[in-house]
Amino acid sequence: MSEIKKLLYCVDNEWRQSATDKYTPVMNPSTGEQIAAAPVCLPAEVDSAVQAAKAAYPGWSNTPVGMRTQLLFRFRELVNQHFEELSVLLATEMGKNLDESRGDVHKVVEACEVAVSAPMEMQGYAMMEATRSHDICLYRESVGVFLGIAPYNFPAMIPFGWFLPLCIAAGNTIVLKVASMVPQTGMRLLELLIEAGLPKGVVNLVTCSRQEVANLLSHPDIQGISFVGSTSTGVKIYSGAAAAGKRVQCLTEAKNHALLLEDAPLEWSAQRIINSCFGCAGQRCMALPVVVVQESVADRFVQILKGMAERLTVGTAYDPQTQLGPVINAAHKKSVLDWIDKGVAEGASLVLDGRQCAPKGFENGYFVGPTIFDHVISGMTIGDQEIFGPVVCIKRVKDFEEGIAVMNANPFANGSSIFTQNGHYAREFARRTDGGMVGVNVGIPVPLAFFPFSGNKRSFFGDLHVLGRDGLRFYTRTKTVTTKWVSPKESGDAQARVSTWEGTINREL
């Protein structure tokens, strides 16, 4: 361990050495080499982050909203100044290629640009003379200390885009639990936020085990929790934290489907589908692991998609030529390979096999090549459960009605897309799909940050999604104030009545 960089955790803008003897290895997925070690912070260290956030909350929430957003303006500029540095760091520790890493970092910039609208979006509303001589106003106020639990696949966008900007712009403080496998991107972003003028305690960062996170679900000083990760963990967090009276948003697994109809231009559509399928090595909740294809064009489409997939350049994440990088670690590589074996055992047709992928000179990296299964039918688990790797399933259907029925039968409903030139089918699809984010001739229907990331069914647990107006509502609470002012005449009449009453009482006594 002496030769490996031991990372720190941050409380009150101070980077501290953990007293733990347990560390999580931080790997370079492209080479299979360890590059750092993240501390499994002790319970007292995690609680110190919560206490710092609690102590900072009164001062930060009372800071005028325009001053809070100025911090985000300065942070945005620093992120842009260090854009390439952050992108290379992210690609190195996570494995997504440089273009995808740049997109990850850009989402932090985009979220800051949305969050600085807080002075407008936090405005409430009012009515004079709501009832006789009474006025009623509604205000939006901050809530308190939040906990953000981030996954490994978007180490910039999720903690510093989805969670942080709206949370602190609204006047809250936050403890970020970043993924121990990819902590350095978040740590560097926090350094830039501190450089931008972050007050002590407003944002704190830890790496820890699931047990420390479980202890926080009922922590009396945490008011709300934002989580992104697996459905099984999300259900536990949602049920546990909600039972403790906290507001919760849990974004969980997905098995997004696209429906390709026979009137769609196949080459054009395949170009938009290919990145959706294999971008980020399939390790994103808006990946497109299933394409439902109308039978009349299925053979041709599969050959087009296979040809495009075979031409993808597989290599180290930080090589500018790379189109498909590695998966996160050896354990996840094994999981994806096991899923491919299972697909073969279930009887699906393996059109393209990525199990033996090993770029020359990087044989120890965690690479899985693009993989395509055809003739995936109901009952095959590879077509229904999240694999989280560069594996695509083709499901064949007769027509639109069968296609949308197949898609809606899946328990997840994060996103869905249709490829067609038929306006009627496009409209019907948008109206009837269970997917919360819908694409019409769009492979990755992720909305910009001023709209919510709005998954459905077992892809989301909670009432308010991240980003957009949903996000700001999640990080604020409402207060209604009813006011009545007494006019001088009313005041005089009331005083006269009181004097008369007092005189009567005195005489009776």
Automatic annotation (TrEMBL):
InterPro entries: Ald_DH/histidinol_DH, Ald_DH_C, Ald_DH_N, Aldehyde_DH_dom, MeMal-semiAld_DH. One of its GO terms (molecular function) is methylmalonate-semialdehyde dehydrogenase (acylating, NAD) activity. CDD domains: ALDH_F6_MMSDH (cd07085). Residues 15-481 form the Aldehyde dehydrogenase domain. GO terms for biological process: L-valine catabolic process; thymine catabolic process. The keyword Oxidoreductase applies. Keywords: Oxidoreductase. It is an enzyme of class 1 (oxidoreductase). Its EC number is 1.2.1.18, 1.2.1.27. The keyword Oxidoreductase applies. Pfam families: Aldedh. This is Methylmalonate semialdehyde dehydrogenase (Acylating) 2. The gene is iolA.
